[in-house]
Structure formats: C-alpha cells, structure tokens
Amino acid sequence: xxxxxxxxxxxxxxxxxxxxxxxxxxxxxxxxxxxxxxxxxxxxxxxxxxxxxxxxxxxxxxxxxxxxxxxxxxxxxxxxxxxxxxx
Length: 87
Hints:
By secondary structure, the protein is of the alpha+beta class. The chain has a single domain (12-86), classed as Multidrug-efflux Transporter Regulator, Chain: A, Domain 2. Helices cover 51% and strands 13% of the residues. The chain is built from five helices and three strands; from the N terminus they run H-E-H-H-E-E-H-H. It has helices at 12-16, 24-30, 35-44, 62-69, 73-86, and strands at residues 21-23, 52-54, 57-61. It has a three-stranded antiparallel sheet. Strand 2 (52-54) and strand 3 form a beta hairpin. The longest helix is centred in the last third of the chain and has 14 residues, at 73-86. It starts with 11 loop residues before the first helix and ends with a helix. This is Integrase.
C-alpha cells in the first residue's frame, strides 16, 4: 500500500495567484492544516481566518488569508499592476 502524500505548502507565487475566494481545502493547504482539523475548526468557529458559509460550502477570501499571513494587500496589487503593465 502507498502512503498518503501530505499536501505540500503553498509557495509565495501560488498565494499571490489565488482567486478572490476559494474553498476551505485550499485555505487548509495554505495554512498547513489537515483537512479534518481545518473543517473541525471552521465548524467550531475557530478557524484562523474568516470563513464564509455559502449553503453547504465553506469559502475563504484571498484578502483575509494574505492579511493573516502578513502579506500586505498593497504589495499584491502592486505586483498585479506590474504584471499588467508588462503586457
């Protein structure tokens, strides 16, 4: 039997490329949380960032995640502007 691969952490570039909102699984990966732990924390209202409940889904925002991780939102917007200006 193969061992289950642990999800790898996200790189800085992957964090900056996240969409405006994403699933709790993506947030768990970015925060190095296991799936069971992440969903349990969200259900208890103890998740490290704000979690939005949309029907049966949990969603998180890029803004909240980057803010929690200490990445300034202005820095991200500057990177996006620079990328657009190059095109």
